Amino acid sequence: MSLSLGAVHTFAVLPVPLQSTTVSILTTYVLFAAFLSLTAFIAARNLLGDVSLRRHAVVGPPIAAIAFLAATFEFSPFLALGAALAVDGLAFRQLHDLDRRLLVGVVVIHFVVSVILGAVLFSLLALLGSAPV
User: How is residue 8 annotated by DSSP?
Assistant: First the structure.
């Protein structure tokens, strides 16, 4: 009994390049979550005094996930904003056990700080991107 391998084709295994879109989406998500965690820390520090930056690292990722899901599935921006503010409030309530008035203040300040700092950083990136070389 002889076995012939003449009809068997061999294929070279080529390394699959990492998908650039996947990497850019994940990098954007991580940077956005870090940005939101930093602005949550700034907002809490503004109203509550001495707070830990490490504890506020949990605030950014769920809010960034809401933004990404809303953009991906084309949800209403108002629905996404309401969900993000609600999750933000829940996160601050879990972290600091605040009464309702102070909680609303921290969430509003977090929103304002995020919008202002985001606008400044975007403007800076646009300015640097348009600079002559």
Answer: -
